[in-house]
Design brief:
mainly alpha; about 180 residues
């Protein structure tokens, strides 16, 4: 049993400080995932890599009972949490930009702002499409999370999900087709 798996077991058992040790041990990997997430999040996100890792840590600690079994599974969970942090920030920024529900007013804006808005909207569309995929096939959605957003290899994903590498490849291809169809509409 690896050190990370042992730490995760201790964290599930409620041992004080075990979650801190998991995050400390995987901090460089979590920063890499956060950096990747921010690249896909659009310009409307006001977080840097470190802040995203720290926000995901706070959500992890607040969740208290997270059932993750190993390194790959934990990184997939962390990637999902980071995605939700970014989506929440984009939605918050969009709500503020639209007046926070006070009143509607249409103004002409510069081209640069509309490009940033398109990237934010695209991030929300990807999030929504991934949510629909998760409703249809949670494993395929997990494969997308782990591969596209967390940058895990097919063998790491297979280990985390308890399936073969070939199954991961098939799920990836099906998920890409599903997401393409959802995004096209």
């Amino acid at each position: 049993m690896s050190e990370i798996t042992q730490l995760l077991s201790r964290a599930r058992a409620g041992e004080p400080g075990a979650a801190d040790h998991v995050y400390a041990a995987l901090y460089p990997e979590l920063r890499r995932i956060a950096h990747s997430r921010l690249r896909h999040g659009g310009d409307r996100v006001s977080l840097d890599t470190t802040a995203l890792v720290h926000d995901s840590y706070l959500r992890f600690v607040q969740a208290k009972s997270v059932d993750v079994s190993g390194r790959g599974h934990f990184l997939a969970y962390a990637s999902k949490v980071m995605r939700s942090v970014i989506v929440d920030l984009i939605r918050e920024a969009n709500a503020e930009r639209r007046g926070g529900g006070k009143f509607d007013l249409t103004l002409n804006t510069q081209i640069a702002e509309s490009a940033a808005d398109r990237e934010s909207e695209e991030a929300l569309h990807v999030h929504d499409a991934l949510g629909k995929l998760e409703a249809v096939d949670p494993r395929m959605a997990a494969v997308v999370e782990m591969r596209y957003f967390a940058g895990l290899t097919d063998s790491e994903i297979a280990e985390a999900l308890g399936v073969t590498v070939r199954t991961v490849g098939r799920d990836w291809e099906k998920a890409r087709l599903f997401l393409y169809t959802m995004m096209k509409d």
